[in-house]
Amino acid sequence: MKKLLLTLVTACAILFAQAQSPCDSLTVSGSQNQLTLTSVGIIDFWETTAPDGTILGQDSLWNMHSVYNNSSSGIPYDTITTCLYTMNTVCCVVYIWNGSSWSIPGNPVPSWDCSPNMIGCFDPGTGTGQYTSLSACQTACSVTASWDCAPATGCYDPGTGTGQYTSLAACQAVCSNTTSVYCDSMIANGSQTQCVFEIIGLNIPVDYWISTANDGTVLGEDSMSTYHMVYNSFTIPNDTINVCITYADAIGYYTCCVTWVWDAASGMWAKMGGVTSVAEINSDNKKLIKIVDVLGRETFPKNNEILFYIYEDGTIDKRYIIE
Predict the structure, then answer these.
(1) How many other C-beta atoms lie within 10 A of the C-beta of residue 268?
(2) Mean pLDDT within 212-240
(3) What is the model's pTM?
(4) How far is residue 292 from each of residues 140, 183, 213, 313, 319, measured CA to CA in Å?
(5) What is the structure's pLDDT at 231?
(6) Helix, strand, coil shares of the chain as percentages rounded to 5?
């Protein structure tokens, strides 16, 4: 009888482990405007949506998922839904912004501590913070804002209260970035069949990444990510990859592209020629593959919106048509 019970308990434990979904291992971090979700394994497809159905972020074949939470009104959503798709399962988790962090409904109410001149009020995650409400913490805790200038990213708040400029306007008056500086800082790592591209010194995610082969085949896409992984796994892997990024500053959106060639002798990807901005690309007599918006979502031609036309030869044309 004991042996039978032990067998049943073991079987139930195995079934429970198998029944656990990828959502069971999700962790979330970041602010209300920009957050990152992480899973213990590679997920086939991620998608996060707002209550009105707006797609806030998508990723594929990655263990991390970045979300840029901004509505058309400019006010971030306080409720989002993240769904994970794998070969055998689909699961979704609803997160609610509680004033300082993202939580699943029903979780204990957090507490807050104050970190002066650094991050302000934060939830220590222990439930034993000094303040029982965010408003009480904010009343007693202040952060002195200041700005420094980074050539690659423009003005930023170092969080120390000792920045060179006392106002954002004063910083922006003397600090600017250039269209190609991000692509100038792009590096490549990995093998010919699986490589990762990254912008050195960039502390915020690039709005949109896309890599294509010379025949126009899309090899990889990412949105709101600091890394871009490309799976170049074909019978004969491509020896040339075109990588384009779209990013924003205080003025608007920019797109630049870099062509990488596989150097078999060194076993590394080599950057070819100079950086190309979209303003230098002529799309006449080229076959259009698709059109995407600044978040990488496929769309159709429309006025008064920045769109990217992706062509068969791997080039990208940025267009803004005024109605």
Answers:
(1) 15
(2) 88
(3) 0.36
(4) 46, 20, 18, 16, 11
(5) 92
(6) 15, 45, 40
| pLDDT score recorded for residue 224 | 83
Q: What DSSP line would sit under 280-298, residue for residue?
A: G---TT--EEEEEETTS-E
- The domain locations on the chain are 20-107, 144-174, 181-319
Is the CB of residue 218 less than 8 Å from the CB of residue 289? Answer: yes
Task: Give the side-chain half-sphere CA count within 13 A for 177.
Answer: 24
Mean pLDDT, rounded, for 211-224: 87
Please state whether 314 falls in left (phi above 0), alpha (psi between -120 and 50) or beta.
left
Are 226 and 202 contacting, i.e. CB atoms less than 8 angstroms apart?
yes
> Is residue 115 helix, strand or coil?
strand
- Tell me the Cα Rg of the chain: 23
Helix or strand or coil: residue 103? strand
Structure confidence at residue 249 (pLDDT) = 58
Q: Does domain 20-107 have CATH number 1.20.140.160?
A: no
Residue 212 β-bridge partners: 218, 242
